[in-house]
Design goal:
The longest helix has 25 residues. Helices cover 23% and strands 24% of the residues. The protein is α+β, with helices and mostly antiparallel strands. A hairpin with a 2-residue loop joins strand 5 and strand 6.
Length: 728
């Protein structure tokens, strides 16, 4: 589509009652990101209340019509997905606006390949809209869905504003705190205006819709907007909202309330301005207490009774049956959790029932899928068959094919596979044949146990659920999934190619083009994605692998090139972006030296003296491991002086170049021995990667100041300590 174009959803697909919209972008430096938001507007172009503003702190509409699904890695980066159930959208909602915002002085012009897509219930992309003229905008309206004559239509907007999320939210009727943000280093932060970005193309109103009403002018001289042009936003006293000012995890208790706070007191003259606050909801949520109550057991041999015991499981069949039943029962009893998983599969928001070991006819031999999920809304049913594998067992293509055929004949909507494996973009875990002659389409989805555990942890530790019983159920589910005997630990085997490839690296006999090296690269990619899920669940932050490929590049060709590089230098590398953390976290596994290196690069401050920078850095790392390696990055020649923290603590000046070369930043690293076996045992490669990331984040990254002042409400060290204590 092109900017300003309109299209009816019914003309695109027969399955657009529930749709998934994806907003995506690329960043050449790997550190670019944005937050998505959704606004539900009435006939006046305003929200009915603050609950109609869906963003990271209010990700689900009360009626289930909107759910923010979060970011998902893709072949070329990541995309933010939004589930919309248009069949239950309240009749007074006339427009659904889809937006994104940046922070810390960042602009959308710094991102590449801005794009929005819309997929129908089966997951098939039916609409795409690319934006190529972004520049200095800090908030962007990608598109909107609107009603016309009882039909939902989509309009490609592509309109940006300099006022960021604050101006966008205020313009649509959201109440926000108007305290200026303390960010002196943000370019242009002191003199933002509220108007649209100069030079941005005007967008005509939706077909058949009246132009948006003009907001109240900020001053008597402000001109009124002209119908058919972009509507200016009201000026506010700050440029944007700070995405990572979430409630402190340390402050989370059995009942965590995000209630509205009283208006801030006036700032005294000459005092620094307080950080901007983001819009907040008035929902009350329940989480599990961060600190466990003192045990009443006489000694450590007394084990607490669990709702879902795992020690008695002896066979793979028992593990699969128990895991399926446990998961499906919790999905049915905890609406927030069930909806979190099914919304991504195109399911409507409604009453959910789950079933296990159901016999279904299939030729001469009935088939018994591990489970069935059924959602009812307004008399209509959505049904998915579930096939489960645990303990690293692979999915069987013939079995999945049978379930796809059964679902198509019976008019079911989906087949969901669930296993320890992590699906890669462009590389399906199971290849099935789709009979295109059948009118009814069946979607095939995959879910890893690591994703299930991540969603449960996000709800009970960070976002909260409706009541204490639901939080307790999720806690019991998470305890079961993490038990050594459950078989639900996620990706836990580097595959049969790992040992011969490692041997070939040692003996320098591995040649470029070896398919076994490609298999190891794919396993490494799966492991990195699982590390992101685990770390993100513990921190309550978005953690994503950084992908520097541009949109449209072939993922198989990219993996083949990485495999050839791996054959030459024996190294596997990855980068992780942790929301709110300083820099990008790098991981390098060097099979020739048997060492794992975790690192992060910090840019040099814009002001001050190099010696001051060095002293401040050493002070920040007062509690970091003594073997932390610090390397100065020097303009023009890369690496400069280096040394361990133990040596530099008494003499911070030793890290400065003796010739006075300009310092561009510092690289902080930790080294750790690498496990050799392919599994996740104590001596395995997977366990060593997990341990290396944990040690580096807790010991180094968590102690660093954030790149942008005020982005978080507590120290990373405190958040990490609390998360690890709660998990252990």
């Amino acid at each position: 589509m092109v900017k300003g174009a309109n299209v009816g959803l019914a003309a695109l697909s027969e399955d657009t009652g529930a749709v998934v919209l994806s907003l995506s972008w690329c960043s050449t430096d790997g550190d670019g990101d944005a937050d998505v938001s959704v606004l539900l507007l009435d006939a006046n172009g305003k929200v009915r209340g603050d609950a109609d503003f869906l963003f990271y702190n209010n990700p689900v509409a009360a009626d289930g019509s909107v759910q923010l699904l979060g970011k998902t890695p893709t072949a070329n980066g990541s995309e933010d997905r939004i589930s919309l159930d248009l069949s239950v959208m309240p009749p007074e909602v006339e427009r659904v606006v889809l937006a994104a915002s940046r922070y810390g002085g960042a602009r959308f012009g710094d991102l590449d390949d801005l794009r929005m897509t819309l997929a129908d219930r089966t997951g098939e992309t039916v609409l795409g809209f690319s934006i190529g003229d972004a520049s200095v905008e800090s908030a962007f309206l990608f598109g909107e869905l609107y009603r016309r004559a009882g039909e939902w239509k989509f309009r490609a907007v592509g309109q940006g504003y300099e006022t960021g999320l604050a101006g966008l939210a205020t313009d649509f009727g959201i109440d926000v705190d108007e305290a200026p943000e303390e960010e002196p280093d943000a370019p242009g932060a002191a003199e933002e205006t509220g108007g649209p970005v100069p030079g941005t193309a005007a967008v005509p109103p939706a077909e058949g819709a009246a132009p948006a009403p003009a907001p109240a002018p900020p001053a008597a001289t402000a001109p009124a907007p002209v119908p058919g042009t972009a509507v200016p936003l009201r000026p506010v006293s700050y440029t944007h909202l700070v995405p990572s000012q979430r409630p402190s995890p340390e402050a989370a208790t059995a009942t965590a309330t995000a209630a509205e706070a009283p208006a801030p007191a006036p700032t005294p003259a000459g005092a620094p301005a307080p950080a901007a606050r983001r819009p907040r909801t008035a929902k009350k949520k329940v989480t599990i207490p961060r600190t466990a109550k003192k045990s009443l057991a006489e000694n450590d041999t007394w084990r607490q009774a669990r709702l879902f015991p795992a020690p008695a499981l002896k066979s793979d069949r028992e593990r699969e049956t128990r895991a399926t039943s446990v998961l499906l029962s919790v999905m049915a009893q905890v609406p927030e959790f069930g909806r979190r998983l099914t919304a991504a599969f195109g399911a409507p928001a409604g009453r959910t029932e789950t079933f296990a070991e159901v016999s279904l006819p299939h030729g001469d031999t009935p088939r018994r899928p591990d489970g069935i999920i059924r959602v009812e809304r307004a008399g209509k049913l959505w049904t998915a068959l579930v096939e489960t594998k645990t303990n690293g067992n692979p999915l069987k293509p013939a079995q999945v094919q049978d379930y796809m055929d059964i679902a198509a004949r019976r008019g079911y909507e989906a087949v969901i596979t669930l296993s320890n494996d992590v699906a890669l973009e462009g590389r399906p875990l199971v290849d099935v044949k789709i009979d295109k002659r059948r009118k009814h389409k069946v979607a095939l989805w995959h879910l890893s146990w690591a994703e299930v555990a991540h969603q449960a942890q996000m709800l009970i530790r960070h976002e909260g659920v409706g009541n204490a019983a639901h939080a307790w159920l999720l806690q019991e589910l998470l305890h079961y999934l993490q038990h050594d005997n459950s078989g639900c630990h996620g990706f836990q085997n580097m595959g049969p190619a790992w040992v011969p490839v490692r041997k070939g690296i040692d003996e320098e006999t591995l040649c470029e083009g070896d398919q076994r090296a490609v298999e190891v690269v794919e396993s490494w990619e799966r492991l990195v994605r699982q590390v992101c899920l685990r770390l993100g669940g513990e921190l309550g932050q978005k953690v994503l692998p950084v992908q520097r490929a541009r949109r449209g590049s072939d993922p198989d060709a990219r993996r083949a090139a990485l495999a050839d590089s791996f054959c030459r230098d024996g190294r596997l590398s990855a980068e992780l972006r942790v929301d709110g953390a300083q820099g990008v976290l790098g991981i390098v596994a060097d099979l020739r030296t048997g060492k794992l290196r975790t690192s992060v690069e910090m840019p040099a401050p814009d002001q001050g003296y190099p010696l001051t920078w060095a002293k401040r850095l050493i002070r920040q790392l007062a509690e970091a491991p003594a073997d932390t390696h610090i390397e100065t990055l020097v303009d023009g020649r890369g690496a400069g002086p280096r040394g361990t923290l133990e040596r530099l603590r008494p003499e911070p000046a030793d890290i400065l170049p003796k010739d006075g070369s300009a310092i561009t930043g510092f690289r902080l690293s930790l080294f750790k021995g690498m496990g050799s076996t392919r599994g996740s045992a104590e001596s395995g490669f997977i366990r060593s990667v997990d341990d290396a990331v944990d040690r580096f984040y807790a010991g180094v990254v968590a102690h660093l100041d954030t790149a942008r002042p005020g982005r978080r409400s507590q120290s990373a060290a405190g958040a990490w300590a609390v998360a690890r204590a709660a998990a252990g």
